[in-house]
């Protein structure tokens, strides 16, 4: 495994970042972890509350576009590993206002990459340094039902401002390896779900609306297909990539679980009906409501994760049924986590997206 890692986790107060920080602190309790997060609407320091007293852990509120701050952190913490999660991450919000996506996802990623280059420039890059750029399968665009799943060699064809901004940052990470030998590794992952998932995303949205007896808005005909991965499986994959991945490479990460949106919502309804002691409307499937489709809605994503399996030995451990049961259980027992997030700002966003 090599020398201890001193990890800068950007976006570590968000959904996947905070799960990753918990995973890392459990797996490597003596290693230094510094979280840099701007605490946008999607960032929540509560997600890391149980780690705040650990001497190896540090939280810094700040923006990945703030170059002097990043240089200072890299230097004073002697960071040898960057795990870069920070992003504007929600497709619907990128349709309403793309500017923040370009700023954080493109300019912010550039700022981090370039600061990391300066960080080791004078002595050359030590062999164990790593820059993990966490990205999405959405950069590959949309598949029709009989297309083969996305491979690492699939050409990029992003369709939303979100995926286009992530594609831009992937290209920068790639270019920094080829141009400056910066030890970047890119991962492109399918849809995650699990604890600490912000309410606007499909699975938490459905869980919460079932608990509140509110309509379950399903876009279009509900036939869009996504591949789903339990967030802790993703975190194990990223751990594997940091320790055993090859700089300059891309790894696709997926759950091998293609599910139609409507079937996923029905599964959630069934599990919620079974696990929740009291529901305002039962069976909760009655709440399903089809709404006007999202503009440019990609039809199908599917990931071919053969490379990470054969080269690095990673495979998902959690089935969709198991993962959804865990997730439903978490939302049932963490009402005090999600209730305050349904703020006035959130409600006004919600009305804009599901206006039809
Ligand atoms: P999230 O929206 O839950 O969290 C993003 C975090 O980044 C938040 O804590 C936010 O405060 C922080 N942030 C935003 N702008 C920042 C800035 N300028 N400076 C510092 N911090 C900033 O997102 P997520 O779902 O956890 O996704 C994390 C990463 O994984 C993203 O890069 C996303 O593209 C990628 N990804 C997500 C999924 C998914 O299903 N959620 C799948 C594949 C890849």
Describe the structure.
Strand 5, helix 5 (161-180) and strand 6 (184-189) form a beta-alpha-beta unit. The protein has twelve helices and twelve strands. The N and C termini lie far apart (53 Å). The longest helix is centred in the first third of the chain and has 22 residues, at 99-120. The protein is globular. The strands form three sheets. A seven-stranded parallel beta sheet has the order 3-2-1-4-5-6-10, sandwiched between helices. The protein has a three-stranded mixed beta sheet with strand order 7-9-11. A two-stranded parallel ribbon has the order 8-12. It has a domain at 6-193 and 228-257 and 297-318: 3-Layer(aba) Sandwich (Rossmann fold). The protein is 41% helix and 16% strand. With 356 residues, it is of the alpha/beta class. It has helices at residues 15-27, 67-76, 91-96, 99-120, 161-180, 202-212, 231-244, 261-275, 306-312, 320-333, 335-338, 344-353; strands at residues 6-10, 32-37, 57-61, 81-84, 130-136, 184-189, 191-193, 216-219, 225-230, 250-253, 258-260, 288-291. Residues 10-11, 13-17, 37-40, 42-43, 63-65, 85-89, 104, 108, 134-136, 166, 189, 191-192, 198 line the site of nicotinamide-adenine-dinucleotide (NAD). Nicotinamide-adenine-dinucleotide is lined by residues 10-11, 13-17, 37-40, 42-43, 63-65, 85-89, 104, 108, 134-136, 166, 189, 191-192, 198.
Strand-and-helix sequence, N→C? Answer: EHEEHEHHEHEEHEEHEEHEHHHH
List cofactors, ions and other ligands: nicotinamide-adenine-dinucleotide
CATH uppermost class of the domain at 6-193 and 228-257 and 297-318: Alpha Beta
Low-confidence stretches: none
Please tell me the CATH architecture of the domain at 6-193 and 228-257 and 297-318 by its name: 3-Layer(aba) Sandwich
**Strand runs, count:** 12
Predict the CATH topology of the domain at 6-193 and 228-257 and 297-318: Rossmann fold
The helix/strand class is alpha/beta
Give the overall shape.
Answer: globular
CATH superfamily of the domain at 6-193 and 228-257 and 297-318: NAD(P)-binding Rossmann-like Domain
The number of helical segments is 12
* Average pLDDT reading: 96
Note the main sheet. Answer: 7 strands, parallel
Order of strands, widest sheet: 3-2-1-4-5-6-10
Ends distance: 53 Å
Compute the CA-based radius of gyration.
20 Å
Proportion of residues in β-strands: 15-25%
> What is the share of helical residues?
40-55%
């Amino acid at each position: 495994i090599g020398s201890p890692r001193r990890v800068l986790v950007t976006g570590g107060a968000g959904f996947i970042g905070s799960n990753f920080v918990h995973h890392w602190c459990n797996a490597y309790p003596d290693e230094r972890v510094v979280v840099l997060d701007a605490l946008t609407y999607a960032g929540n320091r509560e997600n890391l509350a149980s780690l705040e007293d650990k001497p190896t852990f540090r939280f810094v509120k700040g923006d990945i576009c703030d170059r002097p701050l990043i240089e200072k952190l890299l230097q004073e913490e002697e960071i040898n590993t960057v795990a870069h999660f920070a992003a504007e991450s929600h497709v619907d919000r990128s349709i309403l206002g793309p500017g923040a996506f370009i700023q954080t996802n493109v300019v912010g990623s550039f700022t981090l990459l370039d600061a990391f280059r300066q960080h080791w420039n004078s002595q050359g890059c030590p062999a164990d340094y790593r820059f993990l750029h966490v990205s999405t399968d959405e950069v590959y665009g949309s598949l029709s039902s009989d297309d083969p799943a996305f491979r690492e060699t699939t050409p990029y064809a992003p369709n939303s401002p979100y995926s286009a901004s992530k594609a831009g940052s992937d290209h920068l990470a790639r270019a920094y390896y080829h141009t400056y030998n910066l030890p970047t590794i890119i991962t492109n992952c399918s849809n995650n779900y699990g604890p600490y998932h912000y309410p606007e995303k499909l699975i938490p949205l459905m869980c919460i609306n079932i608990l509140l007896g509110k309509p379950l808005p399903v876009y279009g005909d509900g036939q869009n297909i996504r591949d789903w991965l339990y967030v802790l499986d993703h975190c194990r994959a990223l751990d594997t990539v940091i320790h055993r991945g090859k700089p300059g490479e891309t790894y696709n990460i997926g759950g091998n679980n293609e599910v139609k949106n409507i079937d996923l919502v029905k599964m959630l309804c069934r599990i919620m009906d079974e696990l929740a002691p009291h529901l305002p409307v039962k069976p909760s499937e009655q709440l399903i409501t089809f709404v006007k489709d999202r503009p440019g809605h990609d039809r199908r994503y599917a990931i071919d994760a053969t490379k990470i399996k054969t080269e690095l030995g990673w495979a998902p451990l959690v089935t969709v049924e198991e993962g959804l049961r865990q997730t439903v259980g978490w939302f049932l027992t963490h009402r005090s986590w999600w209730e305050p997030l349904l703020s006035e700002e959130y409600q006004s966003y919600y009305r804009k997206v599901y206006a039809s």
